[in-house]
Amino acid sequence: MEAIVAGEGMILRQKTSECCRCCCCQPPIHWIVTPYDPNWAVDKPYPTIASISEVGTTWCGRCCSFNAPGHRQTKYEVRAGTYDEEAPNGAPVLFSHEKTETCGANIYLGQSDNGQWRMPMCCYLPYLETKDANGAKLGRTQYLCDACLFVPKFSVHDRNDNEVYRLRPDTCCLGCCVRCRCTCNAKDGKCCRLPFLLRDPKTLEPKGGQVTDLWAGLTSEMCTKRNTYQIQYPPECDNSMRATLLGSALLVDLVIFEQDQD
């Protein structure tokens, strides 16, 4: 595990194409991890340092991904190096991220000319629990619901269930709305991106780390729908918490960005 979470962070890249994803055609979503690069760009070559396979999810649960984001039971298994789910090579699972069935972050109610009608849920919300190869708990990321319904936020806990970080974007309008930003830079994938900053859970001051949805390239954004995330570790972050932050990025995708592909 140490080799995977070493350095300043990591890049999480979706391997599964979602080009034909619709309604009941919902595949398990697999990922790869590449080395951290603060100026990541889609045209740079990067080696694969880990593979993440989604297992333990049912066809019915995947079908509900659009109607109730984050609802399904699932498990993500992390292995070192390249791993082919169609031809397993016996590589051991180093750690995992898993959840049981929960309520979704919201529920789809209908559609109008102005967009979707969704009702937020306030209890039994999505989470991912990070465990080592022996099943011991390393940490947990929990989706949160409060009075500011338009601002997605997550609580990141250590192995003893102490809240260490609050993961949330910058806000405006007294914390009621996400603050938009545009940091266009032709050298990296952060143009018009929305970083989720790791914050002190009490003061909500940034602590130096973040999870950022990157521009993955025209083909990935428009056709195959493969998402890419940059995970930057905060200072004084141990290996268990670094593995948990990988689960945090997966939960951000599961709850927010995955359902936007439908």
UniProtKB/TrEMBL annotation:
GO terms for cellular component: plasma membrane. InterPro entries: Scramblase. GO terms for molecular function: phospholipid scramblase activity. Pfam families: Scramblase. It comes from the Eukaryota. PANTHER family: PHOSPHOLIPID SCRAMBLASE, PHOSPHOLIPID SCRAMBLASE-RELATED. Belongs to the phospholipid scramblase family. This is Phospholipid scramblase. It comes from Hemiselmis andersenii.
